[in-house]
Amino acid sequence: MNLLRPMLEADIDAVVALIGMHDEDDAEEAQRFYRVLNGCHGQFVLEEDAEVIGATGFDAPTGCDQSYWITWTYIHAQHTNRGLGRKMLTELFDYLQQQGGRKLFVKVSDYVDPEDGAIYAAALHLYESMGFSIEVQHDDFYDVGEAQIILGMRLQQEQEHSPVAQQQVAIQFNEIFEIGETEGSWSFGWHEQKGGGSNAPFAAEDLHTGLGAVREEGARCVFLSFPSNYAGISEPLIASGFTETGSLKDYYADGIDELHYAYIFNQKLLASTPE
Ligand SMILES: CC(C)(COP(=O)(O)OP(=O)(O)OC[C@H]1O[C@@H](n2cnc3c(N)ncnc32)[C@H](O)[C@@H]1OP(=O)(O)O)[C@@H](O)C(=O)NCCC(=O)NCCS
Question: pTM to 2 decimals?
Answer without folding.
Answer: 0.94
